[in-house]
Structure formats: structure tokens, C-alpha cells
Write a structure and sequence with these properties.
It holds the Pfam family Glyoxalase. This protein is of the alpha/beta class. It has a single domain, classed as 2,3-Dihydroxybiphenyl 1,2-Dioxygenase, domain 1, CATH 3.10.180.10. The chain has helices at about 20-30, 90-100; strands at about 10-15, 30-35, 40, 45-50, 80-85, 105-115, 115-125, 130-140.
């Protein structure tokens, strides 16, 4: 039987003001945005759709902590709407790029570790409060 391969995933965001969100993703986050609402930068793609009611644009709440992960990590301290892997050095550069354009840095870059891994995360927020987590990992140097 042939192996089934799934294609590229596009995340869909209901937004309260489509024009404002398109401008933010284009001008602040550096995405290529088209008239269909596709916002694309490298391998990260969103489809921005106008919500019927502004209150329908609802970011994720923080997840419940878990003690059954394979390491001592219990989960993120904030709600995550998207998670994008970036290189260790690119994370800081992207945060500064977004900051320089007037973007919303919800959580400044921070580092932590779990198991044999060291990680660095930052959270950028869009106008509706969706949190785009940037995450870098590497083997712990300790």
C-alpha cells in the first residue's frame, strides 16, 4: 500500500479586523500577504479570515500543567496559538526586527532547560491577541 503524505499546513485565524491584521502581518511581521488573506513567511502560513463578530477571534488560553512529559517540563506558562522553530541566533534577530517595526512582544526571549535540552522562547502577539511562539532548542551545554 502506498504511503500517504500530508501536505503543507495552513493555520486559520479568525480576526476582528481583516485589513488591520493583513497590515500587521505584512508590515510588522514581514509576511507576504495576498488578497485571499494568506500570510506567508518562509514555512509559516496563516489564512486570515474576517470573523462575523470581533468576539469570535479567541486566542488559546494557557494549557493545564502536565507531570507526564518525558522530562521535568510541565508545559508552557502562556497560551500558545502557533509555535515556530527558529535557529538559536535567529530568534533574537526576529524579535528585534518585529520590535523595530512597532510589533507587540508579549514575552521577551527567555531560556530554560528540560532533560538534555536547552530552549529559548519568545512570544509575539498580533492585534487580536494570538500568540506566535518562537522556539529554539539545542542540546544543553552543561
Amino acid at each position: 500500500m502506498p504511503e500517504i503524505k500530508l501536505g503543507r499546513t495552513f493555520q486559520v485565524r479568525l480576526v476582528s479586523d481583516l485589513a488591520k491584521s493583513q497590515a500587521y502581518y505584512r508590515d510588522i511581521l514581514g509576511y507576504k500577504v495576498d488578497g485571499w488573506g494568506h500570510a506567508e513567511r518562509d514555512d509559516m502560513v496563516f489564512i486570515l479570515q474576517q470573523a462575523v463578530n470581533g468576539t469570535d477571534a479567541v486566542p488559546n488560553a494557557a494549557a493545564r500543567k502536565r507531570t507526564d512529559y518525558p522530562t521535568e517540563w510541565e508545559g508552557p506558562p502562556h497560551g500558545w496559538d502557533s509555535f515556530t522553530h527558529v535557529s538559536w541566533d535567529d530568534l533574537d534577530m526576529f524579535v528585534e526586527e518585529v520590535r523595530g517595526r512597532g510589533g507587540i512582544i508579549a514575552v521577551e526571549p527567555y531560556t530554560d532547560s528540560h532533560g538534555k535540552w536547552e530552549f529559548k522562547n519568545a512570544i509575539i502577539q498580533d492585534p487580536d491577541g494570538y500568540r506566535l511562539v518562537l522556539g529554539a532548542m539545542r542540546e544543553s551545554r552543561q
